[in-house]
Structures are given as structure tokens and as C-alpha cells.
Amino acid sequence: MNEIIKTQKLCKTFSNGGVQQHVLRNIDLSIYEGDFTVIMGASGAGKSTLLYALSGMDKPTLGEVLFAEKNITKGTPDELAIFRRKNCGFVFQQTYLVDSMSVLDNVLAAALLVEKNKKVAGEKARKVLKSVDIDENLWNKFPTQLSGGEAQRVGIARALINDPKLVFADEPTGALNSTTGKDVLDVLTAANERGQSIVMVTHDITSARRGNRILYVKDGEIAGECDLGKYVSGDKERHLKLRDFLGGMGW
Amino acid sequence: MSKERMLAKSHFRKNKGSAIGIFCLMFLASMLLSLSMILFTDTYPTASKEAERLNGGDGILFFTSEKIQVDDAYLSDLLDGVKEYELEKALFYSVVSMPFGSGEMTNGLKVGRVENTTSKKLGRTEICEEDTSITGDFIYLPYQFKTSGGYHVGDDYKLTISGETYEMKIKGFLNTVYGGCNNSGLFESCVSSDVYDRMYSKIGAIGEASFIVFTLKDDVKEGAFRIRVLNQLKIDDPLADVSMNYLSMYISSRTFMSLIIAGSFLAVTLLVVVVIILMIVNSISNYVKENMKTIGALKAIGYTSRNIKGSVLMMFLALALAASVLGVAVSYLAAPAISSVVIAQMGVPYSVSFSLIATIVAISTVVVLTILVTLLALRRIRKIEPIVALREGVESHNFRTNHVKLDKTPLSLNAGLSVKTMLHNKRQNIITFFVTGIMVFFCVIALLMFENFNLHPNLSILMSECSDGAIGFDAETKEEAEEFVRSHPEVKNLRRYSETPVYVGQEESLYLMIYDDPTRMNNQDTCYKGKLPSHDNEVSVSGKFAKQNGYDLGDEIKLNVGGNEYSYIICGFIQSCNNDGHEAIMSEAAAAHIVDLDIMPCAFMFDTDKDEEIDPFLKACDEKFGDHVVISINMLKSIEASLITFKGIATLMMVMIGLISALVILLVLFLLIRSLVFSKRKDYGIYKAIGYTSNSLILQTAGSFMPTIILSVLLFSVLSYFVANPYMQLIMINFGLMKCTFNIPIPGLIIISVAMILLSFAFAVLQARRVRKIEPYQMLIAE
């Protein structure tokens, strides 16, 4: 499988009142094309820090992140922004839609950064919104008028609109109830089945089950890795395998 | 109170940037307010205070006459109704071109003996600066020659009168009530005895006038007294050159520019105060929005609305007090520079003194307005329920419409997002619209003043008639002189001109300007309504006089002088700043009904093709007619000198208004963009996360204000173009200018508009640069 991301000795240290806190410690990691990679770990283990370091949203203190063989640790903020618009999609726990823009415009605001033809971008946005089950009558509504699940699916549509090499999802179901959470995971799974590479941070075992590769972060290091194989709905053996792996990690 | 103080400190720490911005606006307002008040209460009344200190009496009468024997018996008859008077004999030149700055000031000139001039008790003339070591031929000049003309004690001064040149040293400057300012039509000077004697021997007894300063008895009416005295003098000697004016007119003509400056300061100040009010309201509104959770939490733990309001009020009150005290202090540092321009025109010794009224008004206005506006803006805090505040006001309904659909709009992505931001920030954009617009208006007023008083002086408004030069002769020579003048081919467009005061009834008077044919006057615009007189029963009177006395076009008016009276039809209204706006124009044929033109001196106004032809022609007249020349003026030089003070004032106004406009726009954009970036920081984080660069977000943010600014600039430029003259008219109407037609140069207007737009954009981009500091990751983990 092709590597999309490769990290070398990735470190992240925060300084708080003169006290150094090592959140990531010498992480060597590869993320592969077509994978649904799930990063798990306890609160404060460094999983979100790792996710944002991998995506170029945050700079590591030491080490390198090679994204599609390009070293993204040395870019300026604007270079990284341009890099992200072409290569990364983001799904956040709090959705982070722009409240002053309609649903369609939230997706278009990302699409038009890459596709200059407004007609093409508009058609693509509509298609993506349909693919994440956002009804047409919601397209002109504003984020505050949507339910949490709807808003998160719009967030996924925005993340997918530019056909990024990788979608980063940070606790995408964290703020949702189980039903709407499942809908969101279904959308991400469907995208992965269509070939979209995904890296998702979660501490929810049900969500983690969707991934084919589970990484467990502990004390800023990759403590273990589990290969679950292709996701099949209702596969109890998969669930037990994941539970055993997590148990072994001290979950 | 301590908990409110604690909260107030916390508000300040959290809103440091906005607080500093508002502090600057408050400081600016209090400084301008204090400056305006200093100008109104200290500088402007200086001329009145000095007149009182110098025991100026009620007015001055001066006349030259060969026939009248001026002795105590004659004066006690003539001045019936006068409580006290003082007579000084001094030389009087009705029109003299005096070197002044880089030009020549044309004005009436009184030349006295030092010992006589400086020893008067009524209408005292005080030496305010002198070098006693200077001996020989010397002159004391009015203080305005120092403040506006740039002369110093010890300088050489060369005065040429009727072909005779007197070279003297300036021994000192005079502080005088009636002859201190060019606007009042008379300069008072005094010279050494030798010079006086030489002047006297040249001009003769006819040139030695009686200057009488007087105080009226309480029951005597000024108008009636004036007409009776002037008529009596004309009866006693029809050839007498007579003039009489009241102190109020001298003070008004001496202070009118200071009134305009003080008024302009006040107008700009009021604007800044309005901007502050808007900014405080906006700031508090943002504060409530941004601190909804904190307010909810404070209420939840037991703080009352009163406690919270009190703490916010305390912060703004502290800012207002500190800013206004500092503003007042700084105003006293700036006041001497601004006052010096006013004083240059007034010609009165002056130094800024502490004005309690100015200080109280400036501080209390800023503080009281701040309290009122803060309390009004804080009313909504009471309505905030803690639970709703903690949820930051969850929206269940939203009736917003999406005006700019990104896939449908013809705008580029950045422009489309800018417009979205603009529509989302309506209140801020409305504030920007009005602030920018009002600034444009004041810049256009400054441009108008600079253009019409400095770059291309609009003489047709300021003077009733314009010409390149004027030469006047006594009655004895005028016919022969006219032939001589007309024989010069370089002299064009001759207009024969005489002048005399005339009276309306027993109390009103007009200064009558008599032309051979008023319809040939260069400045036809002096008549702003109706027409200039062409028949022998027509007169055009000044609009100010007509308005005060209820005259309309077509009305009859009876004019009298020296016992002759005739009824004229008012055919037009004229405007003029001179003679307190009490002037009239008629033809010689019409004037002949009441005055004997044959015995009056007359002048010829003329134009030349080349400016350098003026002086040789005047010199030729002087050489030919010598003492018979009563007026000899190169008007171009004279205007140049007269405009020195106007130019200084116009430049000051231009610079001041330009700076204040730039500063106010900078502060307003600073406050608005700062609060916009703060309130939208989450959105900016999202934009950055999905791939927007800082530069595109800066352009979006700055660009979101530009449609409003451009619209405001364009709209107010056009509006100001049409409103500026009526606005000036409101100010100038008191000085006799009834219809202002000042030129507003379109290129200047375009420069102002473009500069305002570019400056605003530059300021907006500078302020929007704070978007750079927003890091998407920090924003995400902060939530």
C-alpha cells in the first residue's frame, strides 16, 4: 500500500509556566492510502495533538511529517493553508461551520478555493451534500437551524468536497447522540469504501470499530497497533478483537 | 463597591484594545472641545476685553475739513448726547498702500505724534513692544504688523504716500482699539515729530483730521446719533471727509475669522463626540455579546444586573475622566499655536490663560455623555437570563436570508465572502458609513476654504468689485485726470467710482458706492438677487441690510444725506463683508439726486493686460498729479497682503481637518475591525483550517468595509459638493455674505475621495492584520 504520511521522530512539547510537557515523543508512523485509521487513547494521551501535527495544522517541536513525500513541517502558515486546501479535509467534534453562511455556501467556501469554475463547484457541492444525506431543503438554511447530526454531515461534505488525499476527523461523533453518531459514521465509512483515506481520533469503541487500522497512543507514543481488516456491519468477532486489543493496552 | 471595582478591572483587562481606542476618541473629543471653548471664551473675547481695558468708549468719529473750526464750543454742539469724548489731531490718509508681509496692504491710515497718540485717556493706545534705544525717524505700527505682517522692532519700514517716501525704523508696536486690524479699515500709527512734520508739510492742514473717541449717554440711540452728527458735518462742510463707527463694528470685523475658526472647531468636535457615542454603544453591545457566558455565570452566582452594569459603567467612567483630563491638559499645549493664527488676524497681544469654563465644559461633556450612553447601552443586561446567557443565546429560529450565494454571485470568492461579512456586520457598516461621510463633508469644507482663501482667492465673493488697480483724484483735478487716464492704452475697462455714507430715516445708514455705470462692473456676481442699478431711480442694497429692515425687491427706499432726500426703487440685493454688510450701489445719475458729485473726489478702477503695467501707470499718475492723487492702489499686491491671514487660517483648517479626519477614521476602523476579528475569531480559525490564507482573510476583512466606505465617500462627496455652499452661507450670513458661490474644484474633490478610500483601505488592512495571529489549532483546542 502507498504511504500518504510518514513521520520521523515526531515530538511535540508544550511549555506551561516553565514546566515542559512532552505530549508526543519520537513518533515514527505511516498512514496508508485507502485506510480508515483510528487513533485511540485516554484523555490527554496526545491523540488530537498527533492528528493536527499530521495534518499540518500544528507544528511539531521536533521531527518531520512527510505528506505525500512533501515535508510539511517547514512551511509557513500560508503555505500550509494552501497545502491543506488541496490535500486535507477536516471534520471536527464541534462541526465548526461558519454560522453566517448557508449550508451550501459553507461547502462552497471550501470548494471554490480549489475549483474556480463556480458552476462546476456548485454541482459538486450539491452532489456531495446529497451523498451525505443532506436534504435539498436544508441547503439554504444556516448552521444554527440544523440538528447536530445534520451539521456534522455538512462538515463531512465540506471535508470531502475537494477530494482530499486524506480526511482528518477529530472525535466527529463526540457531541452527538448514538443515532446521529451512527449516521455520521456511516457517511465516513461509505466515503472510505469509495476509496477515501481517513484518519479519525476517537475514544469511543463503537466509532473505532469502523476503522481497519487502530493505533493506540499512550503517554505520547504509539503503544500498539491493531489490524481489524475491512469493516463489515454487525461483525461481532471484529468487536471482540478490538476489545481485546484495547484491554491489552490498558483501556 | 469593591466587587464592582474588581469586575471593572477585569473588563478593562479583557477589553484593553477597545478601551484604548475609546480612550483615544474621548481624549480627542475633550481636547477639541477644550480648544473650541478656549477659542470661544478666551481668545475670541480678547478684542472686547482689550477694548474695555483700553477704555474704548462707544465709538469713534473722524473727519477732515478745511472749513470747520474744531474747538470745544463746536464739539459740544456737535456731540450733543455724548457723556465724554477725547479729541486727537492726527494725519489721516483715507487709502494708503502700506508694505505688509510680501505685499501691500491697502487701508485707511492714521498717523499721530507719539506723545499725543499714547497719552489719550479714552480709546487709549498702548505701546505693547518697543525698543527705546531707537532714535531718529521711527514709526510705531499696529501689533498686526508683527503677528501677521512678520515685522520686528528695529526693522526698516518704507512708506510711500502721494509720491513721497518716508524711510523709518520700527520702534515698536501699538495695541489700539480702533486702528489695529486691516478688517476694520483703519490702521493707527504714530511717528517721530520730524516725520510727522514732514508728512504734515506735504499733505497740509486738510490732511490733519480730528479723531474723536466718545461715550454716549445711556438714553442716546446710536443710529440716530450717527446720522445727526454725520449730516451736521456734511452741512457744515460738504467737502468734509467724514467717518464714524461704533466699537461693536470694530470688534465684529476684528474677530469674525476667530469666530469662524472657533465654530469650525466646535463643529468638528461635535462630530467626534457623535462618533464616540456610536463607538461606546457599539463597544458595549459587543461586550455584552462576547461576554454573554460570563454575564450568565455572574448572574448565576448572585451578581445583580446593577452590579454588572455598575462595573462596566465604572470602567467607561474611569476612561472618560482620565481621557478628558489629559485632553484638556494637551489642549492648553496646542492652544497657543492655534490662537496665534487667530491673533494674527486680530492683531491683539494675547497669551492663552486658564479658562475654568472651558475645562469644566470639556470634562463634564465627555463624562456626562459617557455615563448617559453607557447606561442606555447597558439596559439590555437586565433582560439577560442566566441560563440563556450560559447557552450563549441558543437560536431556535432564524429568518436570515442568504443574499450572496457563492455559486451564483458574479463576485470572486474573496469579494463574495467580503460582502457576506459586510451584510453580517450591518451595524458596524452603518457607523462606518456615517463617520466616513461626515469626514468627507468636513474635508470638502476644508478644501473649499483652502481653494477660495488660499490657492485661488475668490474675490468676487469677498469684495464687491474687483480690478487690477485704482487711482483716485481730488475733485479739483478729476476731470483733467480722467482725460490723462483714458489716454493710456494699457489701462482698460475704466470704471469711475465714488463713495459716501447715506442714511435711511433717522437711525440706519448705508455705505453708498457710486459707479458711472454699475452694469459694467467686473463683479456682476456681487448682486445675488435682482439686478445692478441702471436707471437714475434704482439702487441695489446689501441683502443683510434688507433682511434686517424688511425690504424686498421693488420696494421704495428713501435715502438722505446732507439734507437731500430721494426715493429709490430697490432693484437688487448685493452681498459684502465690508461695512458690517450695510452697503448700496447706484449709478452716478441716481446719486446726483442726493449728493453733489462735482465736489467729491473720485477714483478710477482699471484693469491691465499685464500685471507689470500697473505700477508704472500709477507712478505716472503720481508724477503728473502729485498731491491731487488721493488713492493709488495696485490691487493685486494689496489683495496679496490682505490674504496673508486668510491663507494661514485656510491652511490651518485644511491641515487640522485632514488630520482629525484621518485620526477618527483610523480609530473607528481600529475599534470596529478589532471587535469584528474578535467576534469572528472562530470563523477565521475555520477558514484557515480549510485552507484560507491569512492574506486572503485580511483582504476579505478589510474589503468587507470597502463597499460601505466607497458608497459613503461617493455619496457624501456629491452631497457635500451641493451642500458646502449653503453650509458656508449659514456661517457667513452674519457677515453679509447672503449667497455663497465658493468654488469647489472637482479635481480636489476627486483627490479627497480617492485619498479617503485608499487611506481607509490601508487602515483597514493594517487593522485586519491581526487575523494573522489567529491560529486554527489554537482556536480548535480553545473550544
Molecular structure report:
Chain A has helices at residues 47-54, 77-87, 103-114, 118-131, 148-160, 178-193, 205-208, 236-248, and strands at residues 3-16, 19-32, 36-41, 62-67, 70-71, 88-91, 166-170, 197-201, 213-218, 221-227. By secondary structure, chain A is α/β, with parallel strands linked by helices. In chain A, the strands form two sheets. Chain A has a six-stranded mixed β-sheet, sandwiched between helices. In chain A, strands 2-1-4-5 form a four-stranded antiparallel β-sheet. Chain A is globular, with a radius of gyration of 18 Å. The model of chain A has no long low-confidence stretch (mean pLDDT 89). Chain B has 783 residues and is an alpha+beta fold. Chain B contains 25 helices and 21 strands. In chain B, helix 9 packs parallel to helix 21 and helix 15 runs antiparallel to helix 21 (635-679). The radius of gyration of chain B is 33 Å and the shape is elongated. The relative contact order of chain B is 0.12. The chains are: A alpha/beta (251), B alpha+beta (783). The A-B interface holds A 48, 52, 57-58, 77-78, 81-82, 84-86, 88, 90, 92, 94, 96-102, 104-105, 108-110, 112-113, 118-119, 121-122, 125, 140-142, 144-145, 158, 170 and B 395, 397-398, 400, 402, 405-409, 413, 417, 420-421, 424, 682-683, 685-695, 772, 775-777, 780-781, 783.
Largest sheet of chain A: 6 strands, mixed
Structural class computed from helices and strand pairing of chain A: alpha/beta
Domains of chain B, number: 4
What is the makeup of the main sheet of chain B? Answer: 11 strands, mixed
> Gyration radius of chain A, to the nearest Å?
18 Å
N/C terminus separation of chain B: 33 Å
What percent of residues of chain B adopt helix (DSSP H or I)? 40-55%
Bin the strand percentage of chain B.
Answer: 15-25%
Give Rg of chain B in angstroms: 33 Å
Describe the oligomeric state of these chains in a short phrase.
heterodimer
Number of helices, where a helix is a run of at least 4 consecutive DSSP H or I residues of chain B: 25
Note the overall shape of chain A: globular
| Average of the residue pLDDT scores of chain A | 89
User: What gap, in angstroms, lies between the N and C termini of chain A?
Assistant: 29 Å
Tell me what the CATH architecture of chain A is: 3-Layer(aba) Sandwich
CATH topology of chain A: Rossmann fold
